[in-house]
Design a protein that fits this description.
It is a single chain. It contains 11 helices and 9 strands. It is an alpha/beta fold. The strands form 2 sheets. A 5-stranded parallel beta sheet has the order 1-5-4-2-3. It has a 4-stranded parallel beta sheet with strand order 7-6-8-9, with helices on one face. Strand 6, helix 8 and strand 7 form a beta-alpha-beta unit. Helix 4 crosses helix 10.
């Protein structure tokens, strides 16, 4: 019997064992640089995991921006994401491994989106490209190879509607969050200086949502870029984030709903699944001057 895909994190050694046993997951290279949107594709072309495909944060892992504001990286529609997943060769039950070389935030975005679509068999490569090469894995420069599938079905093999399957990955918008401030734990994944409002390189207003707590997404990682052990993550989240709150009472946000997925992934790895994502995050929140802003 072939080994199954560990979730939500898979080590390089575990991925190599899957490949050696004949299991061929869809590999998604999600590398990206907010300051240089073309950098990820260039790095992919210079060397990537064999058979991997490149997915772009703006073009593949986000929907179109529009007035009414849903932030800098709106979620794609379920229909658009289903079509994209089929294009990547993803079908129900087929394992998927997402990775990047920036500590996992863009891979976590792909993981969260596929889970939101209703696809359970998806994991993030712990440590990304660096862990793969450190474990003796080769890199390739050939274009990714894929067998396209129809759009991901709205009903899984278990007969559940996609919307129902996505309940495990709930979302919340600004209108629903505003009256809940103080009654939900809001967790901001941005760097500390952005959270405090000392600098703001990407959005027009500096600061954070009043009452929000802070956990920079890189605090989930060890110095080598791999995630901390599950027990350590659980202890840290329970001490500083979920104290007094159930995971379902935690709302994750960041600048535009991307690095927040890293904290969601870390909580799931720690056995604390069920929190919500505010997809628009700070870029959406600060677009309305009527919404309160805190600094410090």
């Amino acid at each position: 019997m072939s080994p199954t895909l560990p979730r939500p994190l898979v080590t390089a050694a575990e991925l190599q064992a899957l490949l050696a046993a004949g299991t061929t997951p869809v590999l998604l290279d999600c590398g990206f640089d907010l300051a240089d949107p073309g950098a990820g594709r260039r790095h992919f072309e210079a060397g990537h995991l064999p058979s991997a495909m490149y997915v772009h944060l703006d073009e593949d892992l986000s929907g179109p921006r529009h007035r009414g504001n849903q932030g800098r990286h709106p979620l794609p529609s379920h229909a658009a994401l289903a079509a994209r997943a089929g294009h990547w060769g993803i079908a129900p039950g087929h394992p998927v491994v997402a990775y990047d070389n920036q500590g996992g935030p863009y891979a976590a975005r792909a993981w969260w989106l596929l889970r939101w679509l209703g696809h359970a068999e998806v994991a993030v490569l712990d440590g990304g490209t660096a862990a793969w090469t450190a474990a003796g894995g080769a890199l390739d420069t050939a274009p990714g190879r894929v067998q396209p599938q129809p759009p991901y079905p709205a009903v899984s093999r278990e007969g559940r509607e996609t919307a129902e399957a996505a309940e495990a990955m709930p979302t919340i918008d600004a209108a629903a969050l505003l009256p809940l401030l103080g009654r939900r734990r809001v967790l901001d994944a941005r760097a500390a200086e952005r959270f405090r409002g000392e600098v703001e390189p990407l959005d027009p207003v500096a600061g954070h949502i009043p009452g929000a707590s802070h956990r920079f997404f890189k605090h989930n990682l060890m110095p080598d870029g791999r995630f901390k052990p599950a027990a350590q993550l659980r202890a840290e989240f329970e001490a500083t984030v979920t104290a007094g709150f159930a995971p379902a009472e935690v709302v994750h946000q960041c600048g535009s709903g991307v690095t927040a997925c890293h904290n969601l992934l870390a909580m799931e790895a720690a056995g604390l699944a069920g929190s919500a994502l505010y997809p628009g995050s700070w870029s959406d929140w600060c677009s309305d001057p009527a919404r309160p802003v805190a600094r410090g």
